[in-house]
């Protein structure tokens, strides 16, 4: 079991909450807060930490760009666990301030994106500043001479840095959640549990019609369900993409193993990112829904298309 955990700090981030959810016994573990996601990757690569925890994707905003870029292009690390953590945002300021006094707000870009509606209604003229994490924003607001009047962060962070809550539950969507992953240096993946996920990045060979369909077919024909597909630029020029895939199952399963071999044959490169227990192991894993092909289904789809063409979206 890893004992030194690097995570996106400082104390009080949502990432720290995820780390505690991943390792309830982390009370005796050494927690190493890092100033950025790239610093977490660096600490694990250099062996200063046994594992690292970073945000991977959000149910509102999608992938976290630095995490995705490090996983795709950086020296390889393996995902060995995941956690899905609900995120609730609170606006915190120094003692005595009111919402009307707030001119400059600091927070993490994902928090900003998830509080837009509340901010445009309650602080339409305030300047928004993004910093490395929500807790870094709270820490900065608490400093004398801070350039910011308020931070959007977790309640625990605001309290940790001695701030006062001005408004809570300010996220646009109550059900917002973020998926965090634990990273380890390359080695054998954790053993299968029966409810696992496999992540990889596929770099397609020469651009041609049906290339993406061929990639998807490797999973479809073997009955492997995909839970995520995200295209990311490779960095080699416009129009060059790789595909980040999450699939149900473990690399030790025959179907997943064969799908990976199929990809290996049709892609220029495949980066295996890990097989690890699913956070939602109680989810219904019977994924197959028959296509809707009744007359009523066709008519409903035709009305839907008409609405789109008429701008009634
Ligand atoms: O800044 C934090 O606290 C993080 O852990 C990153 C983040 C920010 C907003 C939503 C989820 C995770």
TrEMBL record:
<keyword id="KW-0456">Lyase</keyword>
<keyword id="KW-0584">Phenylalanine biosynthesis</keyword>
<keyword id="KW-0028">Amino-acid biosynthesis</keyword>
<feature type="domain" description="Prephenate dehydratase">
    <location>
        <begin position="4"/>
        <end position="185"/>
    </location>
</feature>
<dbReference type="InterPro" id="IPR008242">
    <property type="entry name" value="Chor_mutase/pphenate_deHydtase"/>
</dbReference>
<comment type="pathway">
    <text>Amino-acid biosynthesis; L-phenylalanine biosynthesis; phenylpyruvate from prephenate: step 1/1.</text>
</comment>
<dbReference type="Pfam" id="PF01842">
    <property type="entry name" value="ACT"/>
</dbReference>
<dbReference type="GO" id="GO:0004664">
    <property type="term" value="F:prephenate dehydratase activity"/>
</dbReference>
<dbReference type="InterPro" id="IPR001086">
    <property type="entry name" value="Preph_deHydtase"/>
</dbReference>
<protein>
    <recommendedName>
        <fullName>Prephenate dehydratase</fullName>
        <ecNumber>4.2.1.51</ecNumber>
    </recommendedName>
</protein>
<dbReference type="InterPro" id="IPR018528">
    <property type="entry name" value="Preph_deHydtase_CS"/>
</dbReference>
<feature type="domain" description="ACT">
    <location>
        <begin position="200"/>
        <end position="277"/>
    </location>
</feature>
<dbReference type="InterPro" id="IPR002912">
    <property type="entry name" value="ACT_dom"/>
</dbReference>
<dbReference type="Pfam" id="PF00800">
    <property type="entry name" value="PDT"/>
</dbReference>
<keyword id="KW-0057">Aromatic amino acid biosynthesis</keyword>
<dbReference type="InterPro" id="IPR045865">
    <property type="entry name" value="ACT-like_dom_sf"/>
</dbReference>
